[in-house]
Amino acid sequence: MDPLSISTGVAGLIGLALQVAPILNAYISDVASARTDIQSYIREVDALSQVSELLQSFLDSSAAVNGQFQTTEAVLCQTIKSCETCLMDLVRMLSKPTSLARRLLWTMEKQKVESIMERVRRYTQLFHFALSVEGWAVLSQTPAEVTAILEMQMQMSKKMQEIVHVTESAKAYREKTEQVAAVLEHMRLLFADEGRRLVEIQERVEDISRGLKDDREMEVLEWLTREQGPGRHHEVRSRRTAGTGRWMLKQSTFKDWVDPASSTRLLWCVGGPGCGKSTLMSFVVDELKTLHPGHEAAVAYYYCDYRARTTQPLLPALGSLVRAFSEASHGLPRSLQTLFDACRRERRPPLVSELEGILSEICGSFKYPFVLIDALDEFSPSDPAQTTYLTCLLDALAQNGVRVFMTSRTGPEPSLLTSGYSVVNYTADNADIRTHVAHALHTDDSMVALLDSQLEEDISNTIVSQASGMFLLAVLHLQNIRGQVSRAGIRRSLSTLSRDLGDAYDKTFEAITHQSQSQQQLAFDALLWVASSYRPLSALELRHALATRIGDDDWDIDDVSPLGLIIKSCCGLLSVDNIKDGQSEVRLVHHTLQEYLQSRQPTWFARAHEVIAQTSLTCLLFKSSGLPTATGRKRSSPSTKRHALVPFARKSWGFHAAMVPLESYQELAMRLFKDKSQLSALYPENRCISGIHIAAGFGLNGLVLQMAKEGLDVETFDSNHQSPLQYACAYNHTETALQLLKLGANPNHLNIKRDTSLFLAVGNGNIKLATILLDHRALPGQLGRDNWVPLHKAADAGYYDIVELLVRRGSWISSRSAKGVTALHRAAGRGHIDIMAFLLSKEASVEATTHDSWTPLHGASSSGQTPAVTLLLQHGANINHRSLDQKTPLHRACRGGHLDTVQTLLNHNADLMAQDADGNLPLHIAAREGHSAVVKHLLTRSPLQQLQHKNKTGLTPLLESQWSGSRDTELLLLQQEPTTITSP
């Protein structure tokens, strides 16, 4: 603040003081009891007014004050602002009440007014001190600096007073000491008061900011994966008897794996089906968390599930791992937040490569990162290539220092592993089995009544012997024994125990048949639904499914059976995370039970899909299912529990129908499709949807053909102006799409989002379907959403074969989106080297610019795609090209913290001193974003010149790091020679 600004502020104080006087005088007539107090207040305000006028005259007359102020944080600047606020508070307080209110409230208001007037007195004293060149010079400093100066002056005056105490000068030094002490006290009190007010404001702001940050972080974490949280781990752990797995800690291979100095970073636990690998992993997870409770370590885990229905199993797996590491961090990684924003903006899921990069980055932020994967053989049974990819990814993490633990039925393929690894051949420990048997027997009241020490020992010995290291077999045998009602029955059961898992399942099914007819039916129906449903069912969904009777017009809530009864009737073949929680997932006791049902119960298993399809359609036909609460629009309503099966039935019935003959469900489906009001109620977000849309979306060719024969137009559109053909393409039903094309469907129709059928097929990576559409006159260059063409989508997703197909069929490689983006931009930003090379071979422009003047090199640098950067440079890309905001590729790489990319750009002579539109060097950007490794590398070249450079706001890289709170980069910059760092 310059002297002119200070003079203006002082003039404002004089004006405010003149406003206060009339208001104070008005109080005298209205509040008699306040007259004496008010008169003293008027004198205080007059004194402030007078000293302010003197201060203004001093400013006008003295040339010595010019240039004193270098910061708005100076004590005098802050005092003027604070005094102005103080007087405004006084005006507001004394001018609001009515005359009657003043009389009633004065005694309460007096304390507040006194507090304000006390501050006015202190301001007056400080302004008096400023009426000299010396005082002015002192108060032109910051509060901390003024305090230090005044304390030094006070100590000096005291010493001088002691030296000259016998002379006349002692009085002057004593007065000087008292004056300085008074000013120091006034300043401390004033700024302490202001500090308290500031702290209160800051705390309120921090509370709001913290709440917003927590909400955003939870949104990002939920977006990463909703598939599997800690519930699965807790369910496995809940079945683990205390002490189970502790023997593992004594194994030399495990000790070696945990040892940070060991080269063994990958431990592969191999065991047969049902031996207890999941239980063992749950123990290892908990033990690692106990061994490393601080922030230096993080434990991420994922339980593979054969029931997962996804063509991209890597996304939920990597999402779970990234989420676990993020939750263990002090805050979400900036790269994760950037990816979330980009995906939300582009309305797409993350790419595997993007999550893989973030996982690698976040693992590096921990001293002891652990990744544990259970049942790798169940990861992607239908696509082994996905399992191979995950194995190689985990091996790469292990090479970079992550400790990886995996379980599977089969051992590793040595050719896939390059890091140091060990294999543990695992069977259930006999001591663990004994502990589990003892716990189960002693927590079952009916068994306690039958047991004696000898019988208990016989049970334990027999089960351990027959289990042969298979924990699941021990559990099943124990279940059969607990179903006996006499000691003799227990001994007979022990004599028939088998070491074959299939035989054990046979016995359990036999036990189910010994129950009442109703319980048998309940058990078999429950097993049918859990084993065959398209997706896992919650406890409430299962209960409602079992209560829905095919052919009924509506359902009776009294048909719903308790969950405990359902679980009990299945004789241990079903498990649930939490029996008291209706949203808990119900699952088969083990994957081997699924295999048993498919192999030994083929007839029973075959009719499961028919039952589920018919039951789901029956549920959708119930009039109560069409009520608003059934569709999820009023989630908080208790009555939603009446319709728990509707979401599953709506989204899944067609998957089961696709596996059975048309005649088994056609009548129910056509009844539903012809009931327009029911369809509108079931699909409130899409009221124009028709039966042919639904059938096409499920790939039900027979049903589509039947409706076409009945005269239904294949060019009918839903609320999103989407055609049945687009439904078939969106859900990858190639044969259904072909059938619709033969029936006359238009392949070039645009939905409300401006997506064509070809664009949807390309997005799914379905080259067969894309070829069929092109053969039926789909336009390869038709502009879609944001003026993207299918080639943009294929290049973005990395589908090389489809890129080649589209170019061969006439797609223009230089086609630009609404923002000027080309296919090469998208491929470069994603790092798809093969596609980039192909496009460049077809003469794609390496210098093509978007509307904000980004080149493909900007995109590759921004996302840290170093091989892509190298390829573009080899093809002549301008390394110092500036975008609209004057940023070069090096600026972009520094912002993302991509060290390899930064090194590559610098090795190709990127301009280290290039300034963006705000005057920032790449070092400013890296320092602000907290990328220490990048900052360190940049400083290996011309450090002095970079460190001294100020951007347009006058900040050096050091000050940028300080303003942004990037502590690591601040410390790194401070380690440089002090003479190389200057303030603005």
Automatic annotation (TrEMBL):
On the tree of life, the source organism's domain of life is Eukaryota
What are the protein's UniProt keywords? ANK repeat, Repeat
The answer on whether this UniProt entry bears the keyword Nucleus reads no
Pfam families xref list? Ank, Ank_2, NPHP3_N, WHD_GPIID
- The ANK repeat boundaries are 720-752, 786-818, 819-851, 852-884, 885-917, 918-939
Ranges for domain GPI inositol-deacylase winged helix: 515-599
| Stored InterPro entries | Ankyrin_rpt (IPR002110), Ankyrin_rpt-contain_sf (IPR036770), GPIID_WHD (IPR054471), NPHP3-like_N (IPR056884), P-loop_NTPase (IPR027417)
By its UniProt entry, which PROSITE patterns does this protein fall under? ANK_REP_REGION, ANK_REPEAT
Ranges for domain Nephrocystin 3-like N-terminal: 243-409
Protein name, as recorded: Ankyrin
Organism from which the protein derives: Aspergillus ibericus CBS 121593
Q: What is the lineage of its organism?
A: Eukaryota, Fungi, Dikarya, Ascomycota, Pezizomycotina
